[in-house]
Write a structure and sequence with these properties.
Chains A, B: It is found in: Cell membrane; Membrane. 2 copies of one chain form a homodimer. Chain A has about 450 residues and is mostly helical. Chain A has 23 helices and 6 strands. Chains A and B meet through helix 12, helix 13, strand 4, helix 15 and helix 16 of A and helix 12, helix 13, strand 4, helix 15 and helix 16 of B.
Chain lengths: ~450, ~450
């Protein structure tokens, strides 16, 4: 792999010296993605100077890769005519995403710079929920009439290609712009010159409604290995396409969300942007819920104060009981959350999955229960302690596997994100129940 | 979206009635991915009957989607000549993946059915580690000499296209088969007919070595939005290409691994395949480590038996202390693990990240420490208890944020998977330290 060879220090130095020629040489032939990375590292003032020496075509691609803050700064600080030119050449979905992230006032500044046609495209895209197929799609697709001959289609393609997001699929539409078929560029090249598209197109087109959730769109594209997927309205009229690169971003986003929720946090990965205070605030609600839950755990122990006074060693095993339950519960929950996300677990198979995890829980519970009972007995020389700890551990791990599986499943069924129901909630519930079983067993045995 | 309309019950019924004509009608025009799903649901005997009525071209694609067990059964139970035909038309990378999953004996049966040329391709692919670019790549790419004219290239493309994995990039090689450039199908269509590829190709080709880790390959392709990436040896000789669909699978695999490791488990998502015993065994080592850790937590409490006897209410706050530390630590760890995986966190910025998380930890610690101190005081009417719990909580959450960030970072730096260092290890370490601070503070204050 070619290494990224842009030396940021050197770039900063050249900018301060206004050595534009050397600057141009350094950035020549660099990938737009790498240039965007450099721009993000530079100060606002420096980035404008660098941006000015980038060629128009490359600048367009660089712009598409920039964060919205930097993008807005650059567009409002280069020559206004150049900004207008850039904006009107940007792809409609990138523009819509960009505008969606700007506050109202800035949004209007940018919109005012757009040509009428671009403006209506972008406003159209902005009207969809950003988490749906409509919010994800671009309007820069290629669609031809079913009657168009393959040779002519290839010719038109050459003209249209520079503006289209992907030329790898060409859609066939009827006179009402309803989607009726699809041909790949491959089919088009292979087809005899005079054959109309309608004769060799595939009529089995997978397509999605504009309102479909972006996660479902991503799953569908992954399952069938599509590079692009057409988006239609209720009458099958073609509205746009979703491309594989956007879908990869969605997959990443959704997975990050799942992972952080599973860890009990509404945090985002915008580690650079937000203040520690903001970050703490996002995590606080989850922690407060857990505090309340664990106060209940504490009051369970409170109810057994006499038992603890009689046998202080009982308190030595609170940590291992709590931690084990939490571990097993989180393991089970992670499997369900991830399995539902990748489609490897069928949402309809609740009973089967819970049953299977319950068996795993019983095995883990039996092994660890025996182990911990032995440790307790050997360590403290109290048979009572061994039995109570062993029983509580065995019960708790079985329950942990069941609850850990059941909760995200049920939450998913009620139409919520399963990751939320996992993690902290399951752990806290298990702590309360586990401690209750433990002390009840101990009190019982001590009395007997 | 077109619904999957294959009624499995109906299919089973038609198979048992041997109503092949009706069977053929039902599966006609169905997507290979959907047909593969149906085959996986059927019994071995039924699936052979259904497979026989699928057309050759579709059957090939269906085969590519099947799990290795079903695939092996079908290939060894259809007409041997048909099996040979199918095998020799399968793409080399799919074949290599399939063979990699088979036990030695079965592998040899399949290899013996392959033609010599296919065999050497597949053996070549099998020689790479399956987690590297070499293990991921396919040899069915298209490469032309730099001297070939664009028109001729397009013509040859039409002949080669059906066998190639992707025709969206065409690679340009010199006389030694060294990679020197790339043209997209789009460039080829747009170029004047008589221009040699060398004149309009891009010479800035992103490429990877065969030994590169698959996760790095996936990151690179995602970053630059490539649909395919060429793989070369140390002399830049083109060996194969990695395509976007394989990379999407890698992303999913790696993320699943991260998520389950973060939850403290070596589990896999093969929920259908493995027995509960196997599943329990995979989780057991992690749990055992945690048991040992929590026994240390228990012995910390043991050292403070006298303090607990003096003030039993101290034990009521063990759950909240332990749970909070674990929560905050896991949150911080999840952010680092995910940030490193997506590239949003720079592995070099250890100090900066730890510092920022420490501030978040201090904020969370101060708020929750104060809250829990108040609760303790109001609930138990003991000022000592309030102060001890508050101090321990504040310390513990700060430490949790620091350790949760630091551990996966360090682990990553030592060349290991950061997800392993997160989760259970951090939680257990925090429990031990947290309880120690708590009881030390309480003993101190009680003495004073």
């Amino acid at each position: 792999m070619r290494q990224v060879t842009i030396d940021i220090k050197k770039v900063k130095e050249l900018i301060s010296k206004k050595a534009l020629k050397s600057l141009r040489t350094i950035i020549q032939d660099q990938h737009p993605v790498d240039l965007a990375e450099v721009l993000e590292e530079l100060s606002h003032h420096e980035s404008i100077e660098l941006f000015k020496v980038i060629d128009f075509d490359v600048a367009l691609e660089v712009l598409a890769e920039l964060g919205s803050e930097k993008k807005f700064f650059i567009l409002t600080n280069v020559n206004p005519r150049y900004a207008v030119q850039l904006l009107n050449e940007m792809s409609a979905d990138d523009l819509a995403d960009f505008l969606g992230e700007l506050p109202e006032e800035k949004k209007n500044i940018v919109l005012s710079l757009l040509e009428t046609r671009e403006q209506s495209d972008v406003r159209g895209l902005l009207s969809y929920d950003e988490n749906t197929a409509g919010g994800l799609m671009t309007t820069e697709y290629i669609a031809f009439s079913v009657d168009l001959k393959s040779e002519e289609a290839l010719n038109r393609l050459s003209e249209l290609a520079p503006d289209a997001e992907t030329v790898y699929y060409v859609y066939a539409v009827d006179s009402m712009h309803r989607l009726v078929g699809v041909v790949s560029l491959r089919d088009l090249i292979l087809a005899p010159a005079q054959t109309p598209i309608g004769e060799f197109m595939s009529t089995e087109v997978k397509k999605v409604k504009a309102s479909m959730d972006q996660e479902d769109v991503a799953k569908l594209m992954k399952k069938y290995g599509f590079l692009a997927l057409p988006v239609v309205d209720d009458n099958d009229v073609l509205l746009g396409i979703v491309t594989v690169d956007d879908v990869m971003d969605v997959m990443e986003e959704e997975t990050t969300e799942d992972m952080l929720k599973l860890a009990g946090s509404d945090e985002k990965l915008d580690t650079q942007a937000s203040s520690p205070w903001m970050r703490a605030k996002r995590r606080l609600p989850w922690i407060m819920v857990a505090v309340m839950g664990e106060i209940i755990s504490g009051s369970v122990i409170n109810n057994f104060s006499y038992t603890i006074k009689a046998l202080v060693a009982l308190s030595f095993f609170i940590p291992v009981l709590m931690d084990m339950g939490g571990n097993v519960g989180t393991q089970s929950a992670a499997i369900v959350v991830r399995g539902l996300a990748t489609g490897e677990i069928n949402p309809a198979s609740l009973g089967k999955n819970v049953l299977r995890e319950a068996v795993v829980g019983i095995i883990l519970g039996a092994i660890n229960g025996t182990l911990i009972a032995l440790i307790a007995y050997i360590w403290q020389g109290e048979i009572v302690l061994g039995i109570a700890v062993g029983i509580a551990m065995a019960f708790n791990l079985t329950l942990a596997a069941i609850l850990g599986t059941l909760m995200p499943f049920l939450w998913h069924r009620m139409g919520h994100d399963p990751a939320v129901a996992a993690g902290p909630f399951v752990t806290t519930a298990l702590d309360i129940i586990g401690l209750f079983i433990y002390f009840t067993a101990a009190t019982w045995i001590l009395k007997a």
